[in-house]
Amino acid sequence: TQPFIKDSSGIYQFQGDSGQRFVQVSPSVRIASNDSGLELFQAVPTRRTATANTANITAEVADQGQFDTFYRTRYDPVTPANNTYTVNTLAGVPPQYEIRDAGGTLMQSGNYTQGGAIGFNGLEVKVNVVAPGAAQTFDLTPPKNDNILNTMSDMIAALRDPTLTSDQFKDMVADTEVHISKARDTVNVATGHIGGRMNNLDDVLNSNEGLTNLNQESRATISEIDLYEAISNVIKENSALSIAQQAYTMVNKTTLFSYL
């Protein structure tokens, strides 16, 4: 079965075998002989982002590394409502803003400028309301894994699309860069696993070679022995054993009465 196909909508799909095969290289050691294309190329994490829910707010990733760290610790896959954050603007001199999580816990606050950028855990949040104004919300976008070929196809299409805005193109470039980086990391991890398997295989082969040499030495020792010398040594050892046994028997039977 061809592992990857491009369907009628232009999306690359994986239809291969996701299992892993093992080779028995010794009585007690089995080593994986393949890696599934599903893990290497299909199930590659895409860029983690945030999405605005209301009309007067934008939330864009400014520092991907910082936001990824925040995303890993805060995203709730069980209760999606917990991934919503609210930005409130407060009257004052100067005006203030508050960012609260879904439970109402204050996450961040500071001076507010209408339309100004607010840095929040790697995000650049912009709110365009007069303080105090209606609460604005944004969500952490659900995580998604995708085939790296789909991202490459989307990027090629974006380069050929003259109607794409600069912001849309910027997002596409960021998506592609992050997805390629994740795909490279996945391949690097798989390469490391292959190296570990090769080391294990080398250890097993070296062990087998050592046992073969030991076996050859043992057979050589037996086949090259001086038969007459070996018989003489056996007879002497047997005589010594018999004398020792007789001496033990005599000593064991000795009593004080016999001595008197």
Secondary-structure-based class equals alpha+beta
Helicity range of the residues?
Answer: 40-55%
Radius of gyration: 38 Å
Question: Strand content of the residues, in percent?
Answer: 15-25%
Average pLDDT for all residues: 88
Counting DSSP E segments of at least 2 residues, the number of strands comes to: 14
Strand order in the sheet with the most strands: 6-13-8-9-10
Major beta-sheet overview = 5 strands, antiparallel
State the end-to-end CA separation.
98 Å
Based on CA inertia axes, which overall geometry fits?
A: elongated
Order of helices and strands: EEEEHEEEHEEEEEEEHHHH
Please count the helical segments.
Answer: 6
- Which stretches are low in confidence, meaning pLDDT under 50 for 5 or more residues running? none
Which helices and strands appear, and what pairs or packs with what?
Elements (H helix, E strand, L loop, with lengths): L3 E3 L5 E3 L7 E5 L2 E4 L4 H6 L1 E2 L4 E3 L4 E5 L2 H11 L9 E7 L5 E5 L5 E6 L5 E4 L2 E5 L8 E5 L4 E2 L1 H13 L5 H58 L3 H27 L2 H4 L1
Antiparallel strand pairs: 1-2, 3-4, 5-14, 6-13, 7-12, 8-9, 8-13, 9-10, 11-12
Helix pairs in contact: 3-4
Task: Characterise the protein shown here.
- By secondary structure, this protein is α+β, with helices and mostly antiparallel strands.
- Helix content is 46%, strand content 23%.
- It is built from six helices and 14 strands.
- Strands 6-13-8-9-10 form a five-stranded antiparallel beta sheet, with no helix packed on it.
- It is elongated, with a radius of gyration of 38 Å.
- The mean pLDDT is 88.
